[in-house]
């Protein structure tokens, strides 16, 4: 009750009235029955809260989606959506392909690259880069298309581990002088 008296006294004072330009916004902010005080402060004030039907909806509205930039410099920026995702996808395919060729033909990574692997690498890199960039230039983010187990975060972590796996595979085969498997 004391809080209501203080609030109404503040809102009814001539200083507050001159500072408040839009009186309806203030009354919407403090939705209560307004009783101006005159005379002694010992008068009794009763406030009733009014419910707003718009704010009492069952489902909260989803947050607005941030606008995705489709500029070439923004998509391929160092912290942009394309570089790590494309490198991760290439590393995942490269690691699986290197292990498959190593198991089937018994060649280590360096002999795979020297025996025609460069042309396969360049072709795969171009194909995957273009396929990854087309949705980004259309404004579609990978996060909007991910749900369930196959999320965009899982793809990023798998790509990071594949990049580390390729480097570890190359270092291990270089030090040991032969194939890993």
Automatic annotation (TrEMBL):
<keyword id="KW-0150">Chloroplast</keyword>
<dbReference type="Pfam" id="PF00504">
    <property type="entry name" value="Chloroa_b-bind"/>
</dbReference>
<feature type="transmembrane region" description="Helical">
    <location>
        <begin position="86"/>
        <end position="104"/>
    </location>
</feature>
<keyword id="KW-0934">Plastid</keyword>
<comment type="similarity">
    <text>Belongs to the ELIP/psbS family.</text>
</comment>
<protein>
    <submittedName>
        <fullName>Early light-induced protein 2, chloroplastic-like</fullName>
    </submittedName>
</protein>
<keyword id="KW-1133">Transmembrane helix</keyword>
<keyword id="KW-0472">Membrane</keyword>
<feature type="transmembrane region" description="Helical">
    <location>
        <begin position="116"/>
        <end position="137"/>
    </location>
</feature>
<feature type="transmembrane region" description="Helical">
    <location>
        <begin position="157"/>
        <end position="175"/>
    </location>
</feature>
<dbReference type="InterPro" id="IPR022796">
    <property type="entry name" value="Chloroa_b-bind"/>
</dbReference>
<dbReference type="GO" id="GO:0016020">
    <property type="term" value="C:membrane"/>
</dbReference>
<keyword id="KW-0812">Transmembrane</keyword>
<dbReference type="GO" id="GO:0009507">
    <property type="term" value="C:chloroplast"/>
</dbReference>
<keyword id="KW-0793">Thylakoid</keyword>
